[in-house]
């Protein structure tokens, strides 16, 4: 059986262990308090002094409160830290897998997984798991104290209830797993649909489809509500079974044992019998602690476990799990470094999505350092797929892709991604300012360097015309900029990254002719220092290219000019 992927850091594991230990200490202190309370009441009714007893009760109560406060503090701190660490891990994995991950997962479901999903996981792991483990072990501790300080035979009888605790917990986890998973799926579906509607709100309004989309969201929201109510109904049923079954039976047994001992005079016949009676009843109440955790288990535990399964599936996904056909490069023999004058080399490269027909077939391509290669072809020919392969986001089914003498495989895909800068036809501008969008790829870049890159892409004059210059807000998704300005800003960001390979996927397809001319001139200047692979339909962009290739039906052919 394969070992499950760990979602904890060493610090998180230490926090869970600390929670277990503190839970057991709290149970021991609570048990001691019950026994001490019994003896205090016995002293009170016997007319004896309570000074020592009261001091002991206060001391144990303070220790118990301090222990619980420490446990809660550790749990809350570790929830925050572990959630941050897990979110960073998920983001790194998302960037490693590349854009292809969205082929089978919506952006909304990913956002829900990385926000509320990670919170539920860490609340389960850091706040609930430790105390739950402690609560499952605590009956043995309580019964040991009962056997030593009250009555060993009563402890032995109540010991028969202990195996029921893990059995009930395991049974409830199996019973509610399907309901919890269904609720999570509905919640993810609602998040995905809501984000999709927000992203396309302008288009929905222009097409007059906003009302129908709103009705669709209302229907999905209602399905999510019904799923949540089924979850709550199952929880109430579980609580009813626990309260009327296990708890009532345990309390009745404990009370019956106490009554039997009193009637038989096993604990004495005078007023001092109060001490074992109170101690016995108090310790019996402590045995209910694991079952009291079941209510929390359903909400926190099942939600956390359902999200754990989702996160593990995401983290164990291979780098282009949505894109490559089966085993891809995983079964290849190790390749030796490629000795060639080429900067970039494709050798008999074939790529296919899953088990479908090849999108790229037996491609051979050699690109020298500083060369500008333009690739054109009809829509659906595989141009964007080729760019994703060159970026390292997708692994070939067969053949080899070399970049600076290194072969692309599952282990080197991250290195390949770091060697190139990609500018897509639908560029992404982050909310913030022009400066922040540039400096995210070079946090220590000087202002002169920022202006130099803007000059290169013919954007500096327009930025200087803005009142706030580099600190001009760009709005969400760059709405404050024109399409041409956004593309040139994206190109400037790529230049600032100082990567030698520029991959341009139709960068002028969505802009006006004037902006297209500015970008083309900028590329002509950039080509003096960078190696460029450009996908385009525009004839103007082909004019400055060193070579023009035509991609059709997954096959590359060079166009002689």
Automatic annotation (TrEMBL):
PROSITE patterns: ABC_TM1F, ABC_TRANSPORTER_1, ABC_TRANSPORTER_2. Pfam families: ABC_membrane, ABC_tran. One of its GO terms (cellular component) is plasma membrane. Residues 17-303 form the ABC transmembrane type-1 domain. Keywords: ATP-binding, Membrane, Nucleotide-binding, Transmembrane, Transmembrane helix. Its main location: membrane. It is found in: Cell membrane. It is a multi-pass membrane protein. Gene3D superfamilies: ABC transporter type 1, transmembrane domain, P-loop containing nucleotide triphosphate hydrolases. InterPro entries: AAA+_ATPase, ABC1_TM_dom, ABC1_TM_sf, ABC_transporter-like_ATP-bd, ABC_transporter-like_CS, P-loop_NTPase, Type_1_exporter. It comes from the Bacteria. GO terms for molecular function: ABC-type transporter activity; ATP binding; ATP hydrolysis activity. The chain crosses the membrane at residues 12-41, 53-74, 127-149, 155-176, 237-260, 266-288. Residues 344-559 form the ABC transporter domain. The keyword ATP-binding applies. This is ATP-binding cassette domain-containing protein. It comes from Varibaculum cambriense. The lineage of its organism: Bacteria, Bacillati, Actinomycetota, Actinomycetes, Actinomycetales.
